[in-house]
Write a structure and sequence with these properties.
about 325 residues; GMP Synthetase, Chain A, domain 3; 2 domains; 5-stranded parallel beta sheet; 11 helices; 9 strands; about 45% helix; binds xanthosine-5'-monophosphate; EC 6.3.5.2; glutamine amidotransferase; purine biosynthesis; ATP-binding
Length: about 325
């Protein structure tokens, strides 16, 4: 894509201009925006960039490993991978209220990020994968309707308040352009085309109290759902697809044994911006196949439901 090629060259020149010999830190979340920002900045200034990946232990299956494999091993980007799952899960113990979960995760994320950054000896610039729609939103809205419904802590970006100059090379781009730039930079399709994922991760998809066991269970359910979606070639037609672990147990039967296990919900929606969404109309055969795999392969889950609520009045996430 020649447009993106031109943008890339210009953006690199601008980054070099802005940063000079300074040191830059960038938070990686596993999402597209921070990944593209990091790859672009690395191309501009190499080892003057260090990425910090604060791993809250609430990512989808295999994603934390993939962040490390991609950025450290393949792109040779300096990367601090901080496994902070003990810390996050400890702080979430006993917490059931969704906004409370978001606040705890958002606060801890900043604390851990700052700690890692101090450990690096500080930096002159903070890089963020801010996109054009984020810029518009923060200018026009001091809390639109959705902001009052869910606080949307975004773990990818960092709240201001950190006294560093910002490097935001994606500020003029829309999501599809960021994806095109990511491909141009050679980022793997799994990262570039990935469905959006909320900053608080699986914490808001485990209804009620979050534990490591529940997170492991949900990751397995979610991975089966996504695998079947990919195998059916439906991944790119869907805005977001994921599983939710419900705080209820139901009675089932396995062989000649009665079971009393978790119920889960599957959610898949189409959308253009996440503000409104429609349920994805899978055929029954697909859903039945996924449900069968889940109850047969994941011990501890014995019932699968499909959420058919549109947004509004529902939201995409359950919490
Ligand atoms: P809702 O559930 O409000 O979600 O319909 C709309 C979009 O936002 C994502 N989402 C979040 N993203 N931090 C985030 O970074 C959050 O706390 C959060 N809550 C929801 C959701 O996945 C969907 O794409």
């Amino acid at each position: 894509d020649w447009t993106m090629g031109a943008f890339r060259a210009e953006a690199i020149a601008r980054i070099r201009d802005q940063v000079g010999a300074g040191r830059v830190v960038c938070g990686l979340s596993g999402g597209v925006d921070s990944a593209v920002a990091a790859a672009l900045i690395h191309e501009a200034i190499g080892d003057q960039l260090t990425c910090i990946f604060v791993d809250h232990g609430l990512m989808r299956a295999g994603e934390a490993e993939q962040v490390v494999a991609t950025f450290r091993d393949r792109f040779n980007i300096r990367l601090v991978h901080r496994d902070a799952s003990e810390l996050f899960l400890g702080a979430l113990r006993g917490v059931t209220e969704p906004e409370e979960k978001r606040k705890i995760i958002g606060r801890l994320f900043v604390e851990v990020f700052e700690e890692e950054q101090r450990r690096l000896g500080g930096a002159d610039f903070l890089a963020q994968g801010t996109l054009y729609p984020d810029v518009i939103e923060s200018v026009s809205a001091t809390g639109g309707p959705s902001a009052t419904i869910k606080s949307h802590h975004n773990v990818g970006g960092l709240p201001a308040g950190m006294r560093m100059k910002l490097v935001e090379p994606l500020r003029e781009l829309f999501k599809d352009e960021v994806r095109a730039l990511g491909r141009e930079l050679g980022l793997p399709e799994e990262i570039v085309g990935r469905h959006p994922f909320p900053g608080p991760g699986l914490a808001i998809r485990i209804l009620g109290e979050v534990t490591r066991e529940k997170a492991d269970l949900l990751r397995r359910v979610d991975a089966i759902f996504l695998e079947e979606i990919r195998l059916s070639g439906l991944y790119d037609a869907i805005w977001q697809a994921f599983a939710v672990l419900l705080p209820v147990r139901t009675v089932g039967v396995m062989g000649d044994q009665r079971t009393y296990d978790h119920a889960c919900a599957l959610r898949a929606v189409t959308s253009t911006d996440g503000m409104t969404a429609d349920v994805y109309p899978f055929d029954m055969g697909f859903l039945a196949r996924v449900a069968n795999r889940i109850v047969n392969e994941v011990r501890g889950v014995n019932r699968v439901t499909y959420d058919i609520t549109s947004k509004p009045p529902g939201t995409i996430e359950w919490e």
